Amino acid sequence: MTADKFSPFVDTIQALVGETPFTILRYRDDGAERLFSSAPEIYAPEGFTNWNEAPSMLEVQGGHSPMLSDGKDALMRNFPDWDVITGSGCDALVNLLVCDEEGRPLGQINVMGKVGSFTPDILDQMQALADAQAHLF
């Protein structure tokens, strides 16, 4: 997977929420494969996470709305690597589920930011952007 494939999405999401770190993951039977990282110094552009290493991924996969972790306490509850997230200067993270046309989960987009920056309107816009990315998975 090349970063060029995601360029239009990268430009659109950054126009909406600014220059903030995010990753794109494709679901596999035993976990999720990282396809893209906008901040490779924080998260490598490629990698794999098992379901048992990231219980929040299972929660995202089972839901159909953004999962917002707003604040350090929420990050600590939901992410074993919360210290990497806060170490990057972020204290909020939203997970956006990406499904195919039949509603089957394909993967997720994880966007980091600041507490309070992911308002309901922004979350709706971000989810609409994520929904339009199914063809990339």
Textual characterization of the structure:
By secondary structure, this protein is α+β, with helices and mostly antiparallel strands. Helices cover 32% and strands 28% of the residues. The protein has a six-stranded antiparallel sheet with strand order 3-2-1-6-5-4, with helices on both faces. The longest helix is centred in the last third of the chain and has 12 residues, at 120-131. The N and C termini lie close together (10 Å).
Tell me briefly what this model is.
The protein is of the alpha+beta class and 137 residues long. 32% of the residues lie in helices and 28% in strands.
Defining key terms:
137 residues, alpha+beta, six-stranded antiparallel β-sheet, 5 helices
Which helices and strands appear, and what pairs or packs with what?
Layout: H1 7-17, E1 22-28, E2 31-37, E3 47-50, H2 55-62, E4 67-70, H3 72-78, H4 82-87, E5 92-99, E6 105-113, H5 120-131
Antiparallel strand pairs: 1-2, 1-6, 2-3, 4-5, 5-6
What can be said about the biggest beta sheet? 6 strands, antiparallel
Strand adjacency order, main sheet: 3-2-1-6-5-4
Mean pLDDT score: 88
Q: How many helices does DSSP assign?
A: 5
By DSSP, the count of extended strands is 6
Structural class: alpha+beta
Element-by-element helix/strand order: HEEEHEHHEEH
Q: Which percent range describes the beta-strand content?
A: 25-35%
For the CA atoms, what is the radius of gyration? 13 Å
Low-confidence regions: none
Shape assignment: globular
Q: What's the helical proportion of residues?
A: 25-40%
Gap between N and C termini: 10 Å
